[in-house]
Amino acid sequence: MTSELTYEGTKREVATDLGVLRYHEAGDGPPLLLLHGSGPGVTGWRNYRGVLGDFAEHFRCLVLEFPGFGVSDPGDGHPMMMAGASVGKFLDAIGITEPVHMIGNSMGGIVATNVAINAPQRVNKLVTIGGIGKNVFAPGPGEGIKLLSEFTDNPTREGLIRWLHSMVYDPAVVTEQLIEERWALATEPLTLEIAARMYSTKAFAANAAAAKASGATPYWAQLHKVQAPTLLTWGRDDRVSPVDMAMLPMRDIPNAELHVFPNCGHWTMIEAKQAWVSAVLAFLTRDEKANNQ
Description:
single chain; alpha/beta; Rossmann fold; eight-stranded mixed beta sheet; 14 helices; 8 strands; globular; hydrolase activity; AB_hydrolase_fold; hydrolase; AB_hydrolase_sf
């Protein structure tokens, strides 16, 4: 199945009032929405192309490309805010009204968790890959976030390579092909400008000040509202979102379980592919009613 899926063969698009949202679709069955992370040159396809075939054997997989990352229409807002707004609009636009399984990598996990908090009727089961929660023991922001900010302020090829290495446990994952495809999209002027809204040093400071001034309750203090059964997946050696961040969601989400993968960085679905797919498929296909009897 995996070898049959191609970028062009799975590519789709749909018009919304956020602009044209592009996505990849494969497989049949219950809907499974896959949400990508952030960072230079990221796309949903690049996050999930290696595992899409495995999930497409069981689910109707929908890999959404968030606005502002160089694939869907760019939009004029903050990338995280646009990402959050795009989920409901996308599902409505393609006619899905029933709850869907969601897998979110890093920022995509935060987006999916926010949907589970604010629109619980949208989410069947939730899977996160690092990213959510709050540092308990490790200092924040993590090394990978600092390197991401450095690259955004000064986008050099060397800076991109430093950031890519912070994402993984095994340096061999950072191939020349990976570097080149990330560099090409990350340095596209509009994509770089939009990234600066989120990850530049100036944006970090402005966003922190705005959050403090607003007095709004952060999402990590509302994790108890997540009703969906949740699987938290984490690389033990994650240098972007250290594994101690998992403590809060593991404790506060009422029906959460945690799977930590050794010798693995931030990209669990890439570095621990076989073990990760096995754990996630077992979780998503489990009959919760039978399990709770």
